[in-house]
Structure formats: C-alpha cells, structure tokens
Design brief:
With 155 residues, this protein is α+β, with helices and mostly antiparallel strands. It has one domain. It has a six-stranded antiparallel beta sheet. A hairpin with a 2-residue loop joins strand 4 and strand 5.
Length: 155
C-alpha cells in the first residue's frame, strides 16, 4: 500500500523551493522522496559524480521559504522568475502543477540524463493507485519552453 502524506502545501510551491535549491547547488541526478513531514533530496554537485549530498526539507522550512521567496518577488520590479542555471526550479514547478491537478501524494522523483521519472499515488489511502511517468529529455525541453506561458496564465 502507498503511504499517503498530507503535505498541506501545494506541490507547485514546495517543488519550486526545492528546485531553486538544486539550481543554487548546480545539482545533477537529483532524487526527491516525500516523507511524512517534508522531503529528502539527494543529488550530485555538478562535476562531482563521486559526491552525493543529501538535504532535508521539513514542512516548516518549506513554508518559511515559500513566504520569503514570495516577498522577494513582490519587491522585484521585474516579476518574471529569475533565470536559473539548469532549470530545476522551473521544471519542478511545472511538474508540481501537474501533481496538484492530479491530487497526488507520496511523491518519488528522479532526474537524470535519461529524463525525469515521477512516481506518485492518487486516490484515498485504501484505494490508492500508483502512477509512474517517464518524461523524456525532449519532453522536458518542451515543458521548459512552455513554463513561462503556463506561469502567466496562473498569475
């Protein structure tokens, strides 16, 4: 049976925060696992295949960071998202929006050169359906191109 966690945060916001962190770290081969009280994220720093870093994001940390980032956007004259080094922030925000629309829970996401693997539950705890997606590098590129348009529609 799939574990069902209630993050009480939209995936679009939580994953955006995590994506920004991954961009700041110039991360590659990221793996995110949702837990009862947040996420565990493992990744390789760019160019360091023999180093594996792990960062934990609690719900409290995510809430605080979401509020801080929203405040930063209010004070920026240019409201468009800042460009990130390798696009995790934009990509994870788009995936988060999709997950929110699906009523997802129990997220497990892996990002690598072959694309992005996304696994999540849908439905109630007693009737959970596990869904798995593999997003190819070409589909990722398309999602990234469409991200600004999608964001404009949400604002």
């Amino acid at each position: 049976m799939t574990k069902r966690y209630n993050l009480v945060l939209p995936y679009v916001e939580a994953l955006r925060v995590i994506g920004r962190h991954l961009d700041e770290e110039a991360a590659s081969d990221a793996h995110l696992v949702e837990q009862r009280d947040g996420f565990v994220v493992r990744f390789h720093p760019r160019g360091e295949r023999d180093v594996l870093r792990e960062t934990r994001f609690t719900l409290a940390q995510l809430r605080t960071t979401i509020i801080r980032y929203a405040g930063e956007r209010v004070f920026r004259a240019d409201k468009r998202p800042q460009a990130s080094m390798n696009g995790h922030q934009n990509l994870l925000r788009v995936i988060g929006s999709i997950l929110d629309g699906e009523g997802a829970h129990g997220l497990d996401l892996a990002d690598g050169p072959e694309g992005v693997s996304v696994s999540y539950g849908r439905g109630s705890a007693d009737r959970c359906i596990r869904t798995q997606l593999l997003i190819s590098p070409e589909e990722v590129a398309t999602m990234m191109q469409q991200a600004p348009l999608r964001r404009e529609r949400l604002e």
